[in-house]
Amino acid sequence: MLYWILYPLRESASIFNLFSYITFRAAGATFTALVIMFTTGPFVIRFLKKHQIGQTVRDDGPQSHMKKEGTPTMGGLLILLSVLIPVLLWGRLGNRYLLVVLFSTVWMGLIGLLDDYLKVVRHCSKGLIGRYKLAGQFVLGIALGAWLCFSPVVPGANTPDPSLIPSVRTIDLESAEGIDISSTETTVPFFKDIRIDLGLFYIFFVALVLAGSSNAVNLTDGLDGLATGVSLISIITFGVMAYLLGHVKFADYLQFSYLPGMGEVSIFAGSMAGACLGFLWFNTPPASVFMGDTGSLALGGAIGSMAVVTKNELLLFLVGGVFVMEVLSVILQVGWFKKTGRRVFRMAPIHHHFELCGWMESKVVVRFWIIAVILGLLGLITLKIR
């Protein structure tokens, strides 16, 4: 919105030319998200406490978590609010990639909101039935996959306004190569010439990525600040990738397919990063509020959709390695127990295993953050080592 209002004024005052820079608008979106989170957070937390919208702690979990009973939940609403407003303010809303990741995040967040509402307001212990939750996730994934398949990017059709990339104005954008990757292909990390064309199966593949990422973040959301911090790192990583792949010079230097207009996704990444960083203020141990499924499913939808639009679906397994580790620990635990009657871990997901091994909750969280940072850096390195 601000781009369309203020950028035309650059002829009168050169300062408004700043709105042509994606980096400036991403920074503005990040700061706006932080301000919204810090100003609305206390009010929302008090509202949740007043209406007794609190977390229910399972009896079969670590006993140290029993003291968290009644902590306000559904804090994911704060995240959604802190992302939606900055994107509307700082983004170019005609950009297809920006709209995709924003819609995916809100859609997943609404599924989580319904689940939280049934659990904490209507006191339905199981919340939204699992198959209905999966159905909602797959509907989004199939719709997004089909749209990407049958509404492909045409080289040059989404070439950005030259004024948006002042540093490369000397490049003839009309003759730029544009995207040279099929709509049904996915890139393979570390290999620049190897791509996998999934054909129509790509639609189902996108659905699996979105459902998998959202549920993986949901499983990780078991300790104060864990899912928020790990998600923040993954989102920043994919945000940097989006900016680089949407920039003619950087894409050419990295020998990666130039994705016209992809840079706008970094506006969303900035908003989400600011929202997560602000939410950590209230979510660090001992947490004043939990994000609930509203937040965890929204974060998973954001990460998954960013991986899809940047054509880095397979790289998600590396960048989101902490989430993968959490999911695999549950699969191993359940599968081995059914087969042998014994457990692989003291408790799954794996963050609870380390708690029961004697690690303090904060130690588990910070060490998982460190692992996420390492994996995020490795993910960025793959753009050059190809």
Describe this structure in words.
This protein is an all-alpha fold. It has 14 helices and 2 strands. It has helices at residues 2-6, 22-50, 76-90, 96-121, 130-150, 201-220, 226-245, 248-253, 265-283, 292-309, 316-319, 321-340, 350-356, 361-381, and strands spanning 185-188, 191-197. It starts with a helix and ends in a 5-residue tail after the last helix.
Order of helices and strands: HHHHHEEHHHHHHHHH
Number of helices in the DSSP assignment: 14
Radius of gyration: 21 Å
Calculate the mean pLDDT score and round it: 87
Assess the beta-strand content as a share of residues: under 5%
Fraction of residues in H or I helices: 55-70%
Strands, total number:
2
Tally of individual domains: 1
